């Protein structure tokens, strides 16, 4: 299946673009807080098993999306290169930071088991409002993930790899989710980007090895690319 590293990167990038946003879409469906009390100390206590499952799925969705971002940068090697590297780097930092905040889910559940919902929320707010937490994990890193990915996909469209509707759907989905309360409306808003990014993933998987390698810079004297290396070892 994998002839060399180029094939592996192509398949891996495509699969991650399918799996990562899909995990996020499934997580919002399983999340007890989506359908129940918006106070997680209450909704998590009603179904702690699902609460743990959705938390783990969000965690891995964000970590895998950070890696999938690198695959998007590959198809921007011909056009919008500088734009892609800047937006891509910020997007990766954003998703890694969002993943770290998922550790607050079990903390909130634990607090809810031993305090009233109001007390649990107050304690959690005091913890999350510490300067080290705010500036180390939240601001502005969260926005790099939420808005960074749609901006990066615009670059993918400008590079000629995606249709215009892809960044539009991703932007409406993730951007729109910031304008409504987390709940049932979030479900279709996060399913839409999963479809658009999944389309990109399928397109990558269907690419030939030669098409993927064509995005690498032309080999200069003394410089090795996957293509030139394959030719010398064939």
Describe the secondary-structure layout.
Layout: H1 5-30, H2 32-35, H3 40-46, H4 48-74, H5 81-101, H6 104-114, H7 117-128, H8 131-138, H9 141-146, H10 148-158, H11 165-177, H12 186-206, H13 209-213, H14 226-233
What does this structure look like?
- The chain has 14 helices and no strands.
- The protein has 234 residues and is an all-alpha fold.
- The longest helix is centred in the N-terminal third of the chain and has 27 residues, at 48-74.
- The radius of gyration is 20 Å and the shape is elongated.
- The relative contact order is 0.15.
Features:
single chain, 234 residues, mainly alpha, 0% strand, elongated
What fraction, in percent, of the residue positions are helical? over 70%
Mean pLDDT: 87
* Structural class label: mainly alpha
Percent in strands: under 5%
| Number of distinct beta strands | 0
Q: From the alpha carbons, calculate the radius of gyration and give it in angstroms.
A: 20 Å
Profile the largest sheet. Answer: none
Question: Element order, helices and strands?
Answer: HHHHHHHHHHHHHH
The unreliable regions are 219-224
Overall, the morphology is elongated
What is this entry, summarized?
The protein is an all-alpha fold and about 230 residues long.
